[in-house]
Design a protein that fits this description.
There is one protein chain. The chain has 464 residues and is mostly helical. 70% of the residues lie in helices and 5% in strands. It has a single domain, classed as MFS general substrate transporter like domains (Growth Hormone, Chain: A, Up-down Bundle). It starts with 23 loop residues before the first strand and ends with a strand. This is MFS transporter. It comes from Curtobacterium aetherium.
Amino acid sequence: MARDHVVSTGYRSRPSTAGVPQTVRSSPTTIHPPTEPLPISTVRPPWRRSFIALSVPNFRLFTATNLVAMTAGWMQRIAQDWLVLQLTGSVAQVGITVACQFAPMLLFGLLGGVFVDRYSKRALMMITQGAFAVLSLLLAVLTLTGVVQAWHVWVIAFLVGMVTVIDNPARQVFVTEIVGHQHLRNAISVNSSVFQLGGMIGPALSGILLVAVGAGWSFGINAVACVAVVVTLGFLRVSELHRTPPQPRAKGQLVEGLRYAAAKPTIIVPVVLVAFFSVFALTMPVLLSAFASTVYDVGAGGYGLFNSAVAVGALTGAVLSTRRAVVRLRTIVGGVFWTGVLLVVAGATPAIAPFTALLVVVGLSQLLFQTASNSLVQLSSNVAIRGRVMSLYVLVLLGGQAIGGPVMGQVVDHFGAHVGMMVAGGVPAAAAAVIALVLARRGGLHLEVRMRHHLPLPTIVGHR
């Protein structure tokens, strides 16, 4: 059985076993062995090698098509949320749309990981992307013919969420099969860069289309992009893939994945933090639609601008993350805390110009900790069980938004967009602070405040 990698975390639960992961007995018949080092780079690359994963031909082809798909996907999401706002006039109804799209991941996400471990990731993605194309085309026809209603959008969003249950964990693990472990961390950063570049271009294009011709064409463009992904997957050189052997069907595989994840701090801590952040802070479309429509009155164009501002910062963060030599647990804890603080500050900002500028910084900070958490979870999990581990990660990342969408929609409707933004940042920041204190107590660490560039910087350090 393949062995997983010990990743530098900045955390030690017991000094006597530092750096040595414990054997996890997850079922009466399955034992996941202690980890051994994977062949990954642990030094900061020179700038010319910041995108070294693109040296893999399959990954270059996949990334090129992925950029188109991510751009179109962002176009659909922005158009979808704005369409519901137009049809209903309620931010809370936009929250229901978010809930419909992400509720399936919350309900069935762990089962998705079991399927991903059992079957070919490439084949699964070809099926799921084809399904996305059909659903996007259906929504485009309903919208362009003028018969679309809010419930149509909700049903299609729910079906998209059902397909995502399989597509997202398959995509996460498939990246490993394309590039192998050596360049996995860099590939995750490149993928994040592509996602955020799409998030920068997509909302802007969607805003233009919303003003010019309405939402329907954004859905049609996404359908075409999904077909392009299917074609690209068919052209990949299968002989060059680092394929993971499918796991045979067995009882208790779902529970096995949960026990494995719960036993490793480098998996469970990022999962818990991402859960808090997902429920409250990743409901950004709900919050930004309220700022665009009721606070600054800038309409669909302003909504697209706000989302693009977040994406500009996130793209910068994704590029910077390619320079990261190691991933530590404290990086993720600190990232969630400071991103939450930035959201609180943004929520308290009354003017549109500084608000938009803060969104750029929020995007940068958010992406840095998200790429770190994704890398740490993947590199901390055994290859044979990685599909189930990543399904848990994706469950909290996407499924949390199913809870947070309606909750934050109600908060905005009752207390206003400014309060909503401060709640979105304040709760994850508080959760990160509590987890930092718990880890510090267990690891024999303490908090120091050091001056850097004339600013106080809280730092968790070991005892001297």
